[in-house]
Amino acid sequence: MIWSMNEIETLTKKAARGAGMSWGLAEEAGKATRRLQEWGLDGAAALADLLTATDGTARSDLLPLAVSGVWTARGGMLCPIAAGACLSDHAAVLAEHPVEMARVAQPMLLIPFAQTIAQQIGRVIDLRWDGVRVQIGTDAVHVAGTEPALCAAVATGVRCSPGQMVTGRKLAFTARAAITPVTAARLGTFAHRTYAPATDESRLAGAGAGLSDND
């Protein structure tokens, strides 16, 4: 099924919120997924895999413990949305020296945050993990590496640093994207959690809306 970018962002934001992210991080997840889909990368599937893998895990166990040294999470695996948002907040630090992270889930989801940083500091950002190199400029993304490595479930280590040259395959921009029914259903299951269950009061209010005192 072909989706508009607004539809993708709305669904993935609700899914992230339903999975337990704060509304702020859920919005970041929606924007990041949309950006990946605009570049022709399957961000929706990556987010669905992330939410499934971390479902039931305390969000605090997925956050960076500190932004000095190698970034790690208390639970042993970093959430790329939380790590990416934190990285964006420390763009000035990245302009001076590399940032290294250990065990990042769905590392592809870091790419949109790296572009935000590239725009903030006016530099190419070099993002690397197990067999993948992504060079992100202010208006272009170049990828070197196989698709399985790019779409890895977990990267043992991620290095983010200021870059110089841009090489590799340039990703093309697209205004609409295909999402498989399976991925849409998985995201929809998480999104459904954001809907408040009906209560006796809400049912009565709904029934009363159709009544008239003129009978």
Present the secondary structure layout.
Layout: E1 2-4, H1 5-18, H2 23-38, H3 43-54, H4 80-89, H5 91-96, E2 99-105, H6 111-121, E3 124-129, E4 132-136, E5 141-144, H7 147-150, E6 154-163, E7 169-170, E8 176-178, H8 181-192, H9 200-208
Antiparallel strand pairs: 1-8, 2-6, 3-4, 3-6, 4-5, 5-7
Helix pairs in contact: 1-2, 1-3, 1-8, 2-3, 3-8, 4-6
What would you note in describing this structure?
This protein is an alpha+beta fold. It has one domain (2-196). The chain has helices at 5-18, 23-38, 43-54, 80-89, 91-96, 111-121, 147-150, 181-192, 200-208, and strands spanning 2-4, 99-105, 124-129, 132-136, 141-144, 154-163, 169-170, 176-178. The strands form two sheets. Strands 2-6-3-4-5-7 form a six-stranded antiparallel β-sheet. Strands 1-8 form a two-stranded antiparallel sheet. Strand 3 and strand 4 form a beta hairpin. Helix 2 packs antiparallel against helix 3 and helix 3 packs across helix 8.
